[in-house]
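To illustrate the input format used throughout this study, we show a single complete record. The first block contains the structure-token representation of the backbone; no residue identities are included at this stage. The design step must infer an amino acid for every position from geometry alone.
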């Protein structure tokens, strides 16, 4: 059973959405190693950047599998994909730095 191009595309978008939010939702370092102290914002940003490259590598693999080759991409492509990955990360970021605090305060009240 083979997946259609549309199924590959939507699966990839869902993977990218999850990958963009993981650094903000997990206290484990690179989602594997437990951390004795809470992760800093800088480390979460570094994890997010690593996830951008991992997601990009998955995308290149899917592109090669679907078309048989990897096409050249200019700077505009990477600017758009970083911007999209930033937008995808907003729910996790807002939860980590704003919503979680409000939810804790409402529980106490």
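Output of the design step:
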């Amino acid at each position: 059973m083979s997946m259609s191009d549309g199924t590959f595309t939507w699966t990839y978008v869902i993977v990218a959405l999850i990958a963009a939010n993981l650094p903000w939702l997990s206290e484990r370092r690179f989602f594997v190693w437990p951390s004795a102290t809470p992760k800093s914002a800088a480390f979460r940003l570094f994890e997010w950047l690593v996830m951008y490259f991992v997601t990009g590598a998955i995308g290149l693999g899917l592109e090669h599998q679907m078309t048989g080759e990897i096409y050249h991409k200019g700077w505009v492509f990477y600017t758009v994909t970083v911007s999209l990955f930033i937008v995808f990360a907003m729910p996790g970021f807002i939860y980590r730095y704003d919503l979680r605090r409000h939810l804790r305060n409402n529980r106490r009240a």
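Structural context for interpreting the output: Residues 10 and 16 are 10 Å apart (CA to CA). The helical segments are 5-25, 41-67, 75-108.
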